[in-house]
Design goal:
Elements: H1 2-6, E1 13-19, E2 24-29, H2 37-54, E3 59-62
Parallel strand pairs: 2-3
Antiparallel strand pairs: 1-2
């Protein structure tokens, strides 16, 4: 069920850091409670691929931060 909900969500990609006169950038995509890691990564893949193709001359760093529950 989480996959069905997640696929309808438009995630926001925002630049959170840059260096070397914006040659290298760091972006953050906030997740949503209740969405598992694989669903999240599958959902944001088109947006990330699009961003990378638009900025192919830059070094881009993505960081996945998550909370694990037992």
């Amino acid at each position: 069920m989480a996959k069905e909900v997640a696929s309808k969500i438009q995630y926001e990609i925002r630049e959170t850091n840059s260096a070397i006169k914006k040659f290298t950038n760091q972006y953050t995509i906030d997740g949503i409670d209740g969405i598992d890691v694989m669903s999240f990564l599958n959902d944001v893949q088109p947006q990330v691929t699009d961003l990378m193709s638009k900025h192919s001359q830059k070094k881009i760093n993505f960081i996945l931060t998550c909370t694990m529950e037992k």
